[in-house]
Design a protein that fits this description.
- The complex is a heterodimer of chains A (430) and B (331).
- By secondary structure, chain A is of the alpha/beta class.
- Chain A folds into 2 domains: 313 residues, TIM Barrel, CATH 3.20.20; 74 residues, no CATH class.
- Helices cover 38% and strands 15% of the residues of chain A.
- Chain A is built from 14 helices and 14 strands.
- In chain A, the strands form 3 sheets. In chain A, strands 1-2-5-6-9-10-11-14 form an 8-stranded parallel barrel, surrounded by 7 helices. A 3-stranded antiparallel sheet of chain A has the order 4-3-12. A two-stranded antiparallel sheet of chain A has the order 7-8.
- The longest helix of chain A is centred in the middle third of the chain and has 16 residues.
- The relative contact order of chain A is 0.17.
- With 331 residues, chain B is an alpha/beta fold.
- Chain B has one domain: TIM Barrel, CATH 3.20.20.30.
- In chain B, the strands form 3 sheets. Chain B has an 8-stranded parallel β-barrel with strand order 1-2-3-4-9-10-11-12, surrounded by 4 helices. In chain B, strands 5-6 form a two-stranded antiparallel ribbon.
- In chain B, strand 5 and strand 6 form a beta hairpin.
- Chain B is globular, with a radius of gyration of 20 Å.
- The chains are: A alpha/beta (430), B alpha/beta (331).
- Chains A and B meet through strand 4, helix 2, helix 3, strand 8 and helix 9 of A and helix 1, helix 2, helix 3, helix 4 and strand 6 of B.
Amino acid sequence: MSKKQIILGAQFPGVNNFTVWSDPAAGSQIEFASFRHFAETVERGKFDFVFLAEGLRVREQKGRFHELDVVGRPNTLAILTALASITNHVGLIGTLTTTFNEPYPLARQLATLDILSGGRAGWNVVTSPGAFTGANFRRGDHLPFRERYERARDFLETARSIWQGGDFHIRSPHFDIAGRTGAGSLPQGAPVIAQAGDSDEGRELAASHADLIYSRHGTLEEGQAFYADVKQRLAKYGRSRDALKILPGANFVLGETLEDALEKQKAIRLQQVSPKNAIVFLEQVWNRDLTAYDPDGPLPEVDPDVAVEQLAQGRAARYDNRLETARAWRELAEREKLSIRELIIKVTGRKQFVGTPAQVAEEIDRYVQADAADGFVFAPHLTPGGFDEFVEKVVPILQERKVFRQDYAAPTLRGNLALPETWQPVAKAV
Amino acid sequence: MTQKSTILLGFGLHANAHGDDLDWRGFWNSLVGRLDGAAEFLTLEDRFADPGRDGLDAILLANWLAPRSRDIGIIAGAPLNFVEPFHVSTAIATLDYVSAGRAGLLIQRLDQHRSRDAGRAIGTLKGFPAVDPLSLDSDTLAATEVVRRLWDSWEDDAVIRDVASQRYVDGEKLHNIDYQSADFRVLGPSITPRPPQGQPLVAFGWTTEGDLALARAADVVFVPAGTGFAGVAAKLRGEGQGTRPKVIADLQVRPDVADVAELVAAAQTSVAQGAEGIRLILPALYRQIASVVDALVPALRADLLVAQPLGGDLRSRFGLPAARNRYAAAA
């Protein structure tokens, strides 16, 4: 049996502490030259797509703008369309919220990107926190929390009606709109749809409506469990197991030897989790001002404050049970004799492939062949040169192993991902 | 003041101009190739929700054209009443980065008929204006103000990358705009750092006397050439000290006749009436573009001192001062 072909996505490093700005090699986060370098490099490496995250409000900590991490980014659709102009093959996937967009304008913009890129547009469909992000938009906090997935699904189906071209007349729980488009059918029929939610609702939305799922499952076993769970959901929507690709987010660190790579990884993690950043992370769980604590000292003895509202705004809320998380972190810190900063470095790590180019290539391949993933969306820690070495050294090894393309086989993103070339209406769950 | 000064030349296009050409990319690529170097700027009107003719999103098309052109200013349109000012502000700021300071925003205040179509395409939503002329006008003004304030919401030196204090950005140099209009509120700051021009150029197309407030909010106003031009130009010229908008005459180039002498005469009249530039409108662009670029443009250059494109950022080409940031503390 031939081996599974690996899918590679390239996330532009951006607004979070994984992007190391203090390194001398770190370039501009906003100049077009950075985006050009990034996209041209990964296209040279035959990557499937460039991937952009979204953030529609500057993050805050304790009522002030969060100053420690990279902040500032271009408009997602605008920069992707500019990149479409200077590339020929690589896919262009943007994260765009269904909460603070409306179906007609967004569907038309995605159609524009698909047309101007010759069929390389992708949309990572997300929902946004209402009150915080809503402060920047006309409609404000317009959507009850429990309805955000319902609106997302409704939005996606509405967008698909619009992409079919000609007259559209939608009357649904969330939309009452009508018009007639002149775009005709799109190069891909519809942009490639990605979904990132990990909840049961998110998985179900992916199974019914998405082409890609962007996940966060680090270990091989977690990845396999997630993979099996999501793939088995496809059948009830009449979709084959190949119709949805599973792509965890991941990082990599390359070295001359494994020891060299591990040393580099350690140095990068220290850059990513600066002393002040360690305290900010701890404050997300403790929900108290911890600036008086020494980042190189032990964890606070005081318990998290569960009464007041969140200190951190504009981040995905990751810690549902503060007291439980604090207890587990204290245990871990005591057992392994970790300072606050060392603990945060440990608990905030993502899946990392660390080693020589050959080791990293082999490990990526192992995850994919073992059905822990169909590929990965890699986020390097440096802008804009974070993929230079990967493209030069890891990609050729994947190609030699015959698990990654020598060249682009299809003109469209959908084609390169080996997805159905034209979109077919999704059957209702049976 | 009798010395003749040069005037600017631009083209007024819309983002559905490819017409029946199915190769949209080929059409736009060859068009921008023709215009780059021949004209100082182009405007791209957005045909938002025009039934069956809505074409491409103009701001995205502008971002696609920018990397494949060198000199031409690109002024992209948005119907501000029907979209999010926040998204428009970041998309034009991005265009300014991609084009290295050649970006502008064309404020589109759709007429009543088009507004009804646009309203149906987005639905009736809280935070968007009612579709009547007064509401649409005041909302356009408010949305323009929001777009502009968001461009200023980052000071130029907000990104500090200060390793000693472990800070990437100086939070004191980011500013909430906290703008409240009749229909909506936007807090800010932008997610996009202040664009290269600070304030990308803001343009507006004059249609009626009721447009005075909108014209005042713009840096550049396009006014139809002809009988009414002199009066409107004088009115706009009478506005304020130093901040009056630049007035550009719109010249229709009829598709059936391409009488170069007649068009040059019309342009000369507009200039005599105070036009600081000419924008050529080609109703059948696809068929007209070759002859206009090859015959009319050279004639305008010869007879009217239309300058060779100046290059540099778009504001300076229109003679606009460097944009001061309204939120930056006075130096």
